[in-house]
């Protein structure tokens, strides 16, 4: 295996348990439009494909967005969701165990680190600053940074080009099938975490190169030297 030089991390469900705040915002948005409330448990199943899909699922009360929801309603719901999410101040979100220690060790060892998330870009820097980890990342790419989100490899390919590394020298760390597929589509190494948001499906089913219960296990994979 080639020496690893670049490591990209998903955010929600990988570095950060953000569902408590996302659930508050989604619930307030759908209720404001006269739709039934959604619980934190439901939202844990709905996250992972970006805010538009999340709010569509919340309105539908299902992982499959109802085709009866019209574009105007979805647009209104998305605006409300963004407003309510900003109002939460992300106060109930928290980093998972060993996140800070792991990324700090990789940064100190000279690895290039990035965030690639399907979360709207406008929220991401503030969240990273709030948890005092933004200084570790050379690139922070939200879900609207490119035309297509993960599992499309567009963001990963952009990083490969920018940093002039081969796909074999990059790891994508995530908790969902979308992260694993994005890595595969870019030809990169995939590191799947079991504790995040993957619509109730074991991350091992997506067949990442590595499966781990703890992000600190990233420090001991082949190609990384700390």
TrEMBL record:
<keyword id="KW-0479">Metal-binding</keyword>
<dbReference type="InterPro" id="IPR006439">
    <property type="entry name" value="HAD-SF_hydro_IA"/>
</dbReference>
<keyword id="KW-0119">Carbohydrate metabolism</keyword>
<dbReference type="GO" id="GO:0005975">
    <property type="term" value="P:carbohydrate metabolic process"/>
</dbReference>
<dbReference type="GO" id="GO:0005829">
    <property type="term" value="C:cytosol"/>
</dbReference>
<dbReference type="GO" id="GO:0046872">
    <property type="term" value="F:metal ion binding"/>
</dbReference>
<keyword id="KW-0378">Hydrolase</keyword>
<feature type="binding site">
    <location>
        <position position="175"/>
    </location>
    <ligand>
        <name>Mg(2+)</name>
    </ligand>
</feature>
<dbReference type="InterPro" id="IPR050155">
    <property type="entry name" value="HAD-like_hydrolase_sf"/>
</dbReference>
<feature type="binding site">
    <location>
        <position position="12"/>
    </location>
    <ligand>
        <name>Mg(2+)</name>
    </ligand>
</feature>
<feature type="active site" description="Nucleophile">
    <location>
        <position position="10"/>
    </location>
</feature>
<dbReference type="GO" id="GO:0046295">
    <property type="term" value="P:glycolate biosynthetic process"/>
</dbReference>
<dbReference type="InterPro" id="IPR023214">
    <property type="entry name" value="HAD_sf"/>
</dbReference>
<dbReference type="InterPro" id="IPR037512">
    <property type="entry name" value="PGPase_prok"/>
</dbReference>
<dbReference type="InterPro" id="IPR006549">
    <property type="entry name" value="HAD-SF_hydro_IIIA"/>
</dbReference>
<comment type="function">
    <text>Specifically catalyzes the dephosphorylation of 2-phosphoglycolate. Is involved in the dissimilation of the intracellular 2-phosphoglycolate formed during the DNA repair of 3'-phosphoglycolate ends, a major class of DNA lesions induced by oxidative stress.</text>
</comment>
<feature type="binding site">
    <location>
        <position position="10"/>
    </location>
    <ligand>
        <name>Mg(2+)</name>
    </ligand>
</feature>
<dbReference type="GO" id="GO:0006281">
    <property type="term" value="P:DNA repair"/>
</dbReference>
<comment type="similarity">
    <text>Belongs to the HAD-like hydrolase superfamily. CbbY/CbbZ/Gph/YieH family.</text>
</comment>
<dbReference type="Pfam" id="PF13419">
    <property type="entry name" value="HAD_2"/>
</dbReference>
<comment type="pathway">
    <text>Organic acid metabolism; glycolate biosynthesis; glycolate from 2-phosphoglycolate: step 1/1.</text>
</comment>
<dbReference type="InterPro" id="IPR036412">
    <property type="entry name" value="HAD-like_sf"/>
</dbReference>
<dbReference type="GO" id="GO:0008967">
    <property type="term" value="F:phosphoglycolate phosphatase activity"/>
</dbReference>
<protein>
    <recommendedName>
        <fullName>Phosphoglycolate phosphatase</fullName>
        <ecNumber>3.1.3.18</ecNumber>
    </recommendedName>
</protein>
<dbReference type="InterPro" id="IPR041492">
    <property type="entry name" value="HAD_2"/>
</dbReference>
<keyword id="KW-0460">Magnesium</keyword>
<dbReference type="InterPro" id="IPR023198">
    <property type="entry name" value="PGP-like_dom2"/>
</dbReference>
């Amino acid at each position: 295996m080639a020496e690893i030089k670049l490591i990209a991390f998903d955010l929600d469900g990988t570095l950060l348990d953000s569902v408590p705040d996302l659930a508050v915002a989604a619930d307030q948005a759908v209720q404001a439009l006269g739709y039934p409330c959604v619980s934190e448990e439901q939202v844990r199943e709905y996250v992972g494909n970006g805010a538009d899909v999340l709010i569509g699922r919340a309105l539908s009360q299902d992982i499959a967005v109802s085709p009866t929801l019209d574009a105007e309603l979805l647009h209104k719901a998305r605006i409300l969701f963004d407003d309510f999410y900003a109002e939460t101040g992300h106060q109930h979100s928290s980093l998972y165990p060993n996140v800070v220690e792991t990324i700090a060790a990789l940064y100190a060892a000279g690895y290039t680190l990035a965030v690639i998330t399907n979360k709207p870009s406008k929220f991401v820097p503030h969240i990273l600053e709030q948890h005092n980890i933004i200084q570790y990342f050379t690139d922070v790419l939200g879900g609207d940074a490119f035309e297509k989100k993960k599992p499309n490899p567009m963001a990963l390919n952009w990083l490969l080009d920018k940093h002039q590394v081969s796909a074999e020298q990059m790891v994508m760390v995530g908790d969902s099938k979308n992260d694993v597929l994005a890595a595969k589509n870019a030809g990169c190494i995939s590191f799947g975490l079991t504790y995040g948001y993957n619509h109730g499906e074991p991350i091992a089913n997506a067949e990442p190169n590595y499966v781990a219960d703890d992000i600190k296990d990233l420090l001991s994979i082949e190609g990384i030297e700390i």
